[in-house]
């Protein structure tokens, strides 16, 4: 797939990520884009539902609206995946790589400053 | 060939002579006069004597000179960070020299705590968790403080530092500027203290959305219904307390 | 924000006044009874921009993209990894003598073994 291309499989078009990716990465990427778009709304609804000075019915309404929003609009549903392999487990935040990809690149000397630890 | 310090006889920082005005050092006219080139024993010396090295270059063989801090007025901070030692030491040395030539009193480079990030990975991609690899990344940093100079001079120095920057190095700088309250108010178009309670840009977005939502009929009907009804107990309590406090304050006044 | 107790003793009253004044001075929100107003969701930094840009950005064209963009006459100038591999394999085969056979004119010569009796 090329630059500027959209993935339409989720009903809402989303720009595909650069480089190599797979289906799980694409799904996570879609969730990230959507949650970023709806973040302000989600926070606003959360504020209304937590504000004890507002009437209880308004707060319940906010809670219902939040529950009605699909899961891909919540940042909680995103998962840090390896950006090269797409593995969802054992991902280091500092590199956005999974343990094996990290090791491959570190041994190749492609990760700046990373060396075999000796103590 | 290194020219000894004794030959740099007329080149002294103004601080030693007592004045504060920085003296221009990298001046080729000054070189021929001030360097004692008559004592050139070897052929090498003679050759070099006929071609004098610029003083600034010669001074790199010595520790960087520093101006003393007179007013203890911190203008700016520079933090230099790298994964290796060489870069960090080289560049902090360079910054000190630049600062010296610009007449900025500097202190440093103070070494900041060594930061070691470490990770442990399983060697293979699948199972075999009994054999692992340990990795680490050491971040070395140095802090240089610039005192007593104007913001313009500091920014000038930073422009030189940026121009001659080296790779694999992170440079952070902070500039501290004193403003009068009037100037700040003028800048932010503030008239009185009420205006200081402006929200930040991020707050603005959420707050604006909250207002939009509450104006929506789904929410508005609940708000309207509650308009006459007294608010929750918590706010009642709050109001009661506030009235008591206010009454007391007015009584005092 | 210290909590103001329900029953105000003279000392507590003075403290409450102090709290109220200091909030005005330092531009803080005055909330002595610690009512949950949900203000933290207003103050919270938005992190959608950070989480949204987790994967590699799709902003730089690859050789494949450039190749498709140009007309067919010029496409051969953009060498992708696949093209390199193909070239490498064809050269290897040629070296072994397994290259593309020459095109022949006319029917193939009679094979003596397959001669019909």
From TrEMBL, chain A:
The UniProt record lists the keyword S-adenosyl-L-methionine: no
Domain of life: Eukaryota
One Gene Ontology term from the biological process aspect of the record: translation
Key words of the record: Ribonucleoprotein, Ribosomal protein
Database matches in InterPro entries: Ribosomal_uS14 (IPR001209)
Gene Ontology cellular component list: mitochondrial small ribosomal subunit
Any one GO MF annotation of this record: structural constituent of ribosome
PANTHER family for this protein: 30S RIBOSOMAL PROTEIN S14, SMALL RIBOSOMAL SUBUNIT PROTEIN US14M
Membership in a protein family: Belongs to the universal ribosomal protein uS14 family.
The protein, known as: 37S ribosomal protein MRP2, mitochondrial
Organism in which the protein naturally occurs: Babjeviella inositovora NRRL Y-12698
Lineage, top ranks: Eukaryota, Fungi, Dikarya, Ascomycota, Saccharomycotina
Automatic annotation (TrEMBL), chain B:
Gene Ontology CC annotations of this record: ribonucleoprotein complex; ribosome
One of the GO biological process terms: translation
Keywords, comma-separated and alphabetical: Ribonucleoprotein, Ribosomal protein
Domain of life (superkingdom): Eukaryota
SMART domains noted in UniProt: Ribosomal_S10
Annotated Small ribosomal subunit protein uS10 domain residues: 77-174
Family matches, as InterPro entries: Ribosomal_uS10, Ribosomal_uS10_dom, Ribosomal_uS10_dom_sf
Residue spans of biased composition, Basic and acidic residues class: 231-243
Family: Belongs to the universal ribosomal protein uS10 family.
The protein, known as: Small ribosomal subunit protein uS10 domain-containing protein
UniProtKB/TrEMBL annotation, chain C:
Signal peptide: none
Compositionally biased intervals (Basic residues): 91-103
Spans annotated as Disordered: 85-117
GO MF: structural constituent of ribosome
Keyword presence, Signal: no
Bias type Basic and acidic residues, positions: 104-117
Keyword Ribosomal protein in record: yes
Localization per Swiss-Prot or TrEMBL: Mitochondrion
Keyword terms: Mitochondrion, Ribonucleoprotein, Ribosomal protein
Pfam families: MRP-S33 (PF08293)
GO cellular component: mitochondrial small ribosomal subunit
InterPro entries: Ribosomal_mS33 (IPR013219)
Transmembrane regions listed in the UniProt entry: none
Family: Belongs to the mitochondrion-specific ribosomal protein mS33 family.
Protein name: Small ribosomal subunit protein mS33
Phylogenetic placement of the source organism: Eukaryota, Fungi, Dikarya, Ascomycota, Saccharomycotina
């Amino acid at each position: 797939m090329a630059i500027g291309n959209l993935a339409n499989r989720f009903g809402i078009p989303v720009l595909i990520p650069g480089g190599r990716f797979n289906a799980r990465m694409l799904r996570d990427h879609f969730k990230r884009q959507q949650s970023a778009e709806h973040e302000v709304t989600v926070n606003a609804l959360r504020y209304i539902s937590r504000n004890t000075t507002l009437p209880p019915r308004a707060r319940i309404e906010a809670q219902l609206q939040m529950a009605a929003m699909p899961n891909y609009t919540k940042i909680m549903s995103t998962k840090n995946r390896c950006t090269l392999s797409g593995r969802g487990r054992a991902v280091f935040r500092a590199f956005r790589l999974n343990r094996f990809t990290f090791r491959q690149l570190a041994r190749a000397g492609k990760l700046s400053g990373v060396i075999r630890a000796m103590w | 060939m290194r020219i000894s310090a004794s030959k740099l006889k007329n080149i002294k920082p103004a601080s030693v002579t007592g004045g504060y005005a920085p003296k221009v050092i990298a001046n080729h006219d000054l070189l021929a006069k001030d360097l004692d080139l008559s004592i050139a024993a070897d052929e090498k010396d003679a050759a070099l004597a006929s071609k004098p090295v610029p003083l600034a270059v010669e001074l790199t063989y010595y520790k960087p000179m520093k101006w003393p801090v007179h007013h203890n007025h911190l203008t700016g901070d520079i933090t230099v960070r790298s994964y290796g030692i060489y870069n960090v030491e080289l560049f902090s040395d360079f910054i000190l020299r630049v600062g010296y030539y610009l007449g900025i009193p500097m202190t440093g480079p103070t070494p900041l705590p060594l930061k070691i990030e470490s990770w442990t990975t399983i060697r293979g991609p699948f199972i075999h968790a009994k054999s692992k690899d340990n990795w680490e990344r050491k971040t070395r940093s140095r802090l240089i403080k610039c005192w007593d100079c104007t913001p313009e001079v500091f920014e000038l120095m930073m422009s030189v530092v940026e121009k001659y920057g080296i790779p694999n190095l992170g440079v952070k700088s902070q500039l501290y500027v004193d403003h009068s309250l009037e100037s700040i108010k003028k800048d932010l178009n503030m008239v009185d203290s009420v205006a200081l309670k402006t929200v930040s840009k991020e707050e603005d977005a959420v707050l604006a959305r909250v207002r939009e939502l509450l104006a929506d009929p789904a929410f508005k009907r609940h708000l309207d219904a509650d308009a006459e009804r007294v608010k929750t107990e918590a706010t009642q309590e709050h109001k009661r307390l506030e009235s008591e406090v206010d009454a007391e304050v007015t009584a005092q006044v | 924000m210290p909590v103001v107790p329900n029953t105000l003793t003279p000392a507590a009253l003075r403290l409450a006044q102090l709290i109220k004044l200091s909030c005005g001075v330092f531009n803080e929100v005055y909330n002595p009874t610690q009512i949950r107003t949900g203000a933290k969701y207003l103050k919270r930094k938005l992190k959608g921009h950070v989480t949204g840009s987790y994967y590699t950005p799709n902003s730089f064209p690859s050789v494949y993209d450039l190749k498709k963009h140009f007309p067919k006459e010029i496409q051969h100038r953009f060498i992708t990894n696949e093209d390199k591999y193909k070239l490498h394999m064809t050269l290897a085969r040629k070296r072994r003598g397994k290259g593309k056979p020459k095109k022949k004119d006319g029917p193939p010569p009679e094979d003596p073994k397959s001669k019909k009796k």
